């Protein structure tokens, strides 16, 4: 639909009455009409970003996939090329909306927030950015896009099922090529092991199968908008949580290491943060069981700066119960190696 304005949920304004989901952003963007237009938009986004930017990494992957789909629309690869072309544009619209929201200084949907918040983190490997973007786009955006496409075309999801699953093979090929291109080489083996472990918990095929199950659930709930919105919100939040896990920093982080008091020298670089293992200075042994951890002491005349000060305990506000959970201190989050965005 040329010139159509997309609302906060990524669907045409004229279809808001039929749609089941509303995302917490107010940015608007003109919906792409053709797959070729999607390709152009993705190239434009990539041209405006530094190559190492986390969003740029995902954008290159998404451009590769979109070009592969476009190249197969003119042949016999799909049973219904017109439906796949429409799904591709509706699907891409949600990513374009997330980019527009971030550019406008607004928060994108929860599933996209980890990628946009950690896009410049020096401890996150490019392959993590690629997988986090795929996670957000497949686990949340894809089921909503399939339902939107069915509503627009007046068809059942079953009518798109064969072509939907046919794309799995195409995506698996692209994902394999991207992993081989971005996977660390021998020069960064110290973080290759945790990265390999992290990548083992996510696969594009499993994500798309889960998305199809979500399509079926949303389709059954379309007559109950309140339940459909709650289900879509759960998809958004769960994809966001997994996105944070996929973006767990695995490499050295100079600012964090300085805040935690870890010495950094050219001969003894700081070890990468490994979940479940305590960090200690190179060349020293961890404390024995039952022994209190050693606290580095500063000289009496050494200035106390924010970077060198241990996190201070915060008093619980008056009236707050014992069972209430206090917000973790920013410095504690940074020292733990966990994303704090």
Write the layout of secondary structure elements.
Layout: E1 5-6, E2 29-30, H1 35-47, H2 54-73, H3 81-103, H4 113-117, H5 126-153, H6 161-182, H7 189-199, H8 204-220, H9 225-246, H10 254-259, H11 330-336
Antiparallel strand pairs: 1-2
Helix pairs in contact: 1-2, 1-3, 2-3, 2-5, 2-6, 3-5, 5-8, 5-9, 6-8
For the structure shown, list the relevant keywords.
mainly alpha, 341 residues, 2 strands, disordered N terminus, 11 helices, two-stranded antiparallel ribbon
Provide a compact summary of the structure:
The chain has helices at 35-47, 54-73, 81-103, 113-117, 126-153, 161-182, 189-199, 204-220, 225-246, 254-259, 330-336, and strands at residues 5-6, 29-30.
Could you walk me through the main structural features you see in this protein, from its secondary elements to its overall organization?
- A two-stranded antiparallel ribbon has the order 1-2.
- Helix 2 packs across helix 6.
- The protein is an all-alpha fold and 341 residues long.
- It is globular and about 50 Å long.
- It has 11 helices and 2 strands.
């Amino acid at each position: 639909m040329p010139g159509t304005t997309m609302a906060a949920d990524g669907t045409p304004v004229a279809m808001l009455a039929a749609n089941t989901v509303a995302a917490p952003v107010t940015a608007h963007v003109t919906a792409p009409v053709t797959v070729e237009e999607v390709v152009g938009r993705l190239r434009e986004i990539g041209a405006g970003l530094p190559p190492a930017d986390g969003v740029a990494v995902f954008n290159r992957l998404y451009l590769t996939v979109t070009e592969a789909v476009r190249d197969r629309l003119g042949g016999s690869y799909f049973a219904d090329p017109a439906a796949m072309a429409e799904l591709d544009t509706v699907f891409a619209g949600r990513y374009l909306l997330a980019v527009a929201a971030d550019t406008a200084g607004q928060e994108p949907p929860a599933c996209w927030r980890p990628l946009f918040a950690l896009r410049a983190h020096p401890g996150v490997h490019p392959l993590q950015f690629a997988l986090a973007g795929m996670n957000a786009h497949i686990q949340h955006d894809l089921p909503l896009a399939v339902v939107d496409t069915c509503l627009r075309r007046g068809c059942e999801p079953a009518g798109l099922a064969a072509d939907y699953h046919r794309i799995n093979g195409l995506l698996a090929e692209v994902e394999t090529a991207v992993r081989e291109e971005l996977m660390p080489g021998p020069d960064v083996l110290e973080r290759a092991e945790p990265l390999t472990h992290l990548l083992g918990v996510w696969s594009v095929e499993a994500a798309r199968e889960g998305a199809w199950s979500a399509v079926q659930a949303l389709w059954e709930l379309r007559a109950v908008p309140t339940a459909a919105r709650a289900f879509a919100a759960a998809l958004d939040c769960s994809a966001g949580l997994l996105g944070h896990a996929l973006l767990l920093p695995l490499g050295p982080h100079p600012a964090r290491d300085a805040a935690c008091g870890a010495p950094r020298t050219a001969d003894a670089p700081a070890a990468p943060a490994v979940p479940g293992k305590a960090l200690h200075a190179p060349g020293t042994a961890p404390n024995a069981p039952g022994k209190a951890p050693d606290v580095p002491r500063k000289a009496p005349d050494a200035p106390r700066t924010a970077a060198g000060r241990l996190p201070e305990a915060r008093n619980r506000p008056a009236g707050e119960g014992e069972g209430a959970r206090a917000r973790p201190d920013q410095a504690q989050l940074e020292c733990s190696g966990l994303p704090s965005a």
